[in-house]
Amino acid sequence: MTQQRYTGRVALVTGAGSGIGQATALRLAREGARVVGCDVDAAGLEATAKLLAAERYEADLLNADITVQGDVERVVAAPPGGFVDLLANVAGIMDYFLPVGELDDETWDRVIAVNLTGPMRLCRAVVPIMRTNGEGAIVNVSSIGGLTGSVAGTAYVSAKHGLIGLTRSLAYLYGPEGIRTNAVCPGGVRTNIGRTAFPKSDWAFRRFEQSFDRESRTAEPDEIAALVAWLGSAEARNVNGAVITSDGGWTA
Q: Which CDD domains match (predicted)?
C-alpha cells in the first residue's frame, strides 16, 4: 500500500507533462497530495491527466511557461485555498552540449530562463505563502551538471550550478521559518529531455563522451520522483540545504 505522507497537502510540480515531473505528479497524487502541475507541453499534460484519471486522482494541470511571469503567477494562484505545501521545480532543458566558444545568446537565454530564472520566480512566489503558513518544502531538481562541468554544455552547467546556489540561499535564509529547501542531482534519466540534447558541437561532445563512459545505469523517472517526494515529506524534516546526488555512482 502506498504511503499517505501528503494527505491534505498541496504540491505544485513543474514539468508535469513528462519524465521526472510527470512521475513526481503521479507519485505525490498517490500519496494523497492535491497536485497542481504545469508544463509548456499541452499534449504531455493531457497524457498526465489520463494517467491520473485512470487511477481516479484529481489534479489541476495548467499549460504554462515558467519563463513568463504572468504564467508563474497563474500557476501559483491555482491551488485550492491558495496554499502550497511543496514546490517541486522539475522543468528543465538541455543546451545541445554547446561549449562557450560556440554558445549563441538565444540558447544561453532560454536555458538560463527555464533552468534557473523560472525556478527562482516560483520560489519567490511561494515563499510568502509558506512564511504565512509557518512551514513548507521546496525541492529543486538540479543535475550532476550542477556539480561538474563534464556532462553538458556551458549554459546547462551554469544554470544547474546556479540552481544549487539558489537552493542553499533559500535554505539558509528561510530555514528558521520552517521552510526547507533541498536539491536533487540526477545523472542519466530516461526522459524526453533529449529534444535539446542533440549535440551541435562534435569536438565538445567527443570530450563529454569520456565522462559518459563512467555512467553505470540510466535511472527511471520514478526513482528520482521517489527522492523528491521524500525530501518534501515530514520524514525529511531535518534535511535542509542538502544537495543529494541520484546518479548510480556516476560522480563517485
A: SDR_c
